[in-house]
């Protein structure tokens, strides 16, 4: 980790040759896909806590190295908040936008859509101010930059007034949710649902702004003793008897998700949740109108292949379309469909057939993979998926002609 305090120190560090070493951007290794693999040098701007708040515009400019967990607290001191957040905030601002982190809400875009300006240190040492009015093309590329355009020194976020969220989770069925999907999308500002494979069971989750006082139904016994320790043990047992997975999914739905649950808290505490398990995941975005067809195909594939098992949940979220070149939501409202296979006590679970089946369904319906999650796409695939891919490549080659910011994964993406 190369820790610096100023942009000038970073510029000097980039000029210093180190044999066989690439320059990776701090904060990008938060997902499953090796955008910044082990062995790369990572760097940060001090603690990234220096921020400039414009209360009139409700905007905040922060260093790229600031963790969103720290930014959330700082914004609350000014009566502000980010309109949407992913599940995890222990990640740097530059990394969050660099991989296209998302949450849910058909009226909300992926997190990079909240970026209104940024500064970029290129491989040549030039510092570029970027926004929709200055270096506009570079801005559209850099809002989801994959760490390969340069160093994001600062990010300016458009904020909203601080707010609390009322979260309501209740049981339903896959048939009901898919048949009334538009109703659910309109009923809640931040709607998502969890499907429990090998069953019809679904947990519907609504999150909406509220003026009610904070309250919580959290319980150590149910959240940890049962929802973590017991589940991990049973998943480990299922590695020897895979057919148990179907029973585990149904049992834990009945145990933890078959009743209505409500929580109220400041927005970021509802958006964020603890990812307790070691896990493998895939997360693709498909056109929203393909949601029902794709999910029913995945359900049928599992039913037709009893030896292929899937851990719960399949998490289904939604996002507004945007104009960010490498956004999975580029020019279309999208449904993100996240599948998961846990690694109980660190043990890998066979998943190849499930992975390939899921990827095939996603590709069939025009899917685009989350950049921070596992996928098998090559440049040829990505050129078909992303209309603006050639424009991004042109910007990348202009800003980093020698490939200073490339790694093995990115070489697969761009060559």
Integer average pLDDT: 90
Strand order of the largest sheet: 13-10-12-11-15-16-14-17
- Residues in helices, as a percent range: 25-40%
Low-confidence stretches: 25-30, 36-48
GO biological process, one term: L-ascorbic acid biosynthetic process
InterPro entries: ALO_C, FAD-bd_PCMH, FAD-bd_PCMH-like_sf, FAD-bd_PCMH_sub2, FAD_lactone_oxidase-like, Oxid_FAD_bind_N, Sugar_lactone_oxidase, Vanillyl_alc_oxidase_C-sub2
Pfam family, one: ALO
Subcellular location: Membrane; Microsome membrane; Endoplasmic reticulum membrane
Task: Write the SSE topology.
Blueprint: E1 2-4, H1 7-15, E2 43-45, E3 51-54, E4 59-63, H2 68-77, E5 80-81, H3 93-98, E6 115-121, E7 127-131, H4 136-142, E8 151-158, E9 160-161, E10 164-173, H5 174-179, H6 181-187, E11 190-195, E12 201-210, H7 220-238, H8 244-257, E13 261-266, H9 267-271, E14 279-287, H10 291-304, E15 314-319, E16 334-342, H11 352-364, E17 368-369, H12 379-385, H13 389-399, H14 408-414
Parallel strand pairs: 1-2
Antiparallel strand pairs: 3-4, 4-8, 5-9, 6-7, 6-8, 10-12, 10-13, 11-12, 11-15, 14-16, 14-17, 15-16
Helix pairs in contact: 7-8, 10-11
Short description:
By secondary structure, the protein is α+β, with helices and mostly antiparallel strands. The chain is built from 14 helices and 17 strands.
């Amino acid at each position: 980790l190369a820790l610096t305090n100023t942009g000038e120190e970073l510029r000097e560090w980039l000029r210093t040759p180190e044999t066989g070493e690439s320059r990776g951007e701090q904060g990008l290794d938060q997902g499953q896909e090796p955008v910044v693999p082990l062995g790369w040098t990572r760097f940060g701007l001090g603690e990234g806590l220096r921020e400039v708040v414009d209360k009139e515009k409700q905007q905040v400019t922060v260093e790229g190295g600031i963790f969103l967990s720290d930014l959330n607290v700082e914004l609350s001191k000014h009566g502000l908040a980010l309109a949407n957040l992913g599940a995890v905030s222990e990640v740097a601002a530059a990394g969050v936008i660099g991989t296209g982190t998302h949450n849910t809400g058909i009226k909300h875009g992926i997190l990079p859509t909240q970026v209104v300006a940024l500064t970029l240190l290129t491989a040549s040492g030039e510092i570029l101010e970027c926004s929709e009015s200055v270096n506009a093309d570079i801005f559209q590329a850099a809002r989801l930059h994959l760490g390969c355009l340069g160093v994001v020194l600062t990010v300016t976020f458009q904020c909203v007034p601080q707010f609390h969220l009322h979260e309501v989770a209740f049981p339903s069925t896959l048939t009901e949710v898919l048949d009334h999907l538009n109703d659910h999308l309109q009923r809640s500002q931040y709607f998502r649902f969890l499907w429990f494979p090998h069953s019809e069971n679904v947990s519907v989750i609504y999150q909406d702004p509220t003026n009610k006082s904070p309250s919580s139904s959290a319980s150590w016994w149910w959240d940890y003793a049962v929802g973590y320790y017991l589940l991990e043990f049973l998943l480990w047992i299922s590695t020897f008897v895979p057919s148990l997975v179907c029973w585990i999914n149904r049992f834990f739905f009945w145990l933890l998700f078959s009743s209505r649950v409500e929580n109220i808290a400041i927005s970021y505490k509802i958006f964020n949740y603890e990812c307790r398990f070691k896990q493998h995941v895939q997360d693709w975005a498909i056109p929203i109108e393909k949601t029902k067809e794709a999910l029913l195909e995945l359900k049928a594939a599992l039913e037709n292949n009893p030896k292929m098992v899937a851990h719960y949940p399949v998490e289904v979220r939604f996002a507004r379309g945007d104009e960010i070149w490498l956004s999975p939501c580029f020019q279309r409202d999208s449904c993100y469909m996240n599948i998961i296979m846990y690694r109980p006590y660190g043990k890998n679970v066979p998943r190849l057939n499930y992975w390939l089946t899921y990827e095939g369904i996603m590709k069939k319906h025009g899917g685009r993979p989350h950049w921070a999650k596992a996928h098998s796409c090559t440049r040829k695939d990505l050129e078909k998926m992303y209309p603006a891919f050639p424009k991004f490549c042109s910007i990348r080659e202009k800003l980093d002609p020698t490939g200073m910011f490339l790694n093995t994964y990115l070489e697969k993406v761009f060559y």
